[in-house]
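Budget justification aside, the reviewers requested a transparent look at the raw inputs and outputs of the sequence design task funded under Objective 1. We therefore reproduce one unedited record. The lines immediately below are the structure tokens for a 237-residue chain.
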């Protein structure tokens, strides 16, 4: 019998206890596993330790699946223990695995082999910002990172603006935290005054910011405190 892959969420921000933002029911599944496919071993070990799992961390097996995993053969090797009957947990660096996360690669391969995938409940920054944004929750798209260089960057922003206007579809995107301020300035100089922009920073933390304003209102309000902080942007009408 084949094993099962459990998609295990972890907190987005630092908390005294991981169970402040995760359902305690996840612990039973985590306690049953000794094999984990993770984006980063160090952060995964820290998360499992803070979660208070029953097994000793040193007794667990970890393999990394991240942006440095370029070989399909490596992913196939990760799946072999599961095909042999061993269940595994997939853990991202933050939030839910498989969404804007390399964990999707092992899941895609697992589906081709008929492996059962079980997603556990936990925080998704993408869904949480949509919940709190007031933007169109009936139709939205996550676009990942914007191009870094001009004119591709501004052209992409204007394309998102057109999609938001013509399709009434909220456009979600992110940036490397150290480039947040530069992106914010580019958005203000590129977008039309009536477009609505949501800025969501450090979601679930005590310093959380989630604010939606028009571009015109943002110009009056000034730059939010988002420098070098994990931030999601949502554009809509």
């Amino acid at each position: 019998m084949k094993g099962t892959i459990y998609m295990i969420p972890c907190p987005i921000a630092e908390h005294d206890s991981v169970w402040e933002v995760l359902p305690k029911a996840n612990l039973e599944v985590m306690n049953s596993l000794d094999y984990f496919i993770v984006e980063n071993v160090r952060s995964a070990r820290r998360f499992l330790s803070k979660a208070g799992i029953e097994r000793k961390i040193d007794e667990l097996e970890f393999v990394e699946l991240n942006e440095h995993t370029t070989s399909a053969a490596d992913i196939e090797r990760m799946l072999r223990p599961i095909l042999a009957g061993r269940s595994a947990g997939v853990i991202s660096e933050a939030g839910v695995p498989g969404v804007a996360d390399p964990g999707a690669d092992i899941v895609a391969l697992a589906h081709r082999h008929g492996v059962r995938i079980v997603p556990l409940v936990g925080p998704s920054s993408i869904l949480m910002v949509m919940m709190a944004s007031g933007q169109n929750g009936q139709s939205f798209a996550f676009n990942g990172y914007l191009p870094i260089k001009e004119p591709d960057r501004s052209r992409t922003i204007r394309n998102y603006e057109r999609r938001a206007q013509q399709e009434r579809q909220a456009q979600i995107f992110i940036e490397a935290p150290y480039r947040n301020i530069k992106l914010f300035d580019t958005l203000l100089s590129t977008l039309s005054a009536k477009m609505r922009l949501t800025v969501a920073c450090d979601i679930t933390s005590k310093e959380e910011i989630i604010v939606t304003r028009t571009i015109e209102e943002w110009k009056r309000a000034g730059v939010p405190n988002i420098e070098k902080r994990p931030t999601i942007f949502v554009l809509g009408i």
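The two ends are 51 Å apart (CA to CA). The chain has two domains: 4-119, 125-236. Computational costs for records of this kind are itemized in the attached budget.
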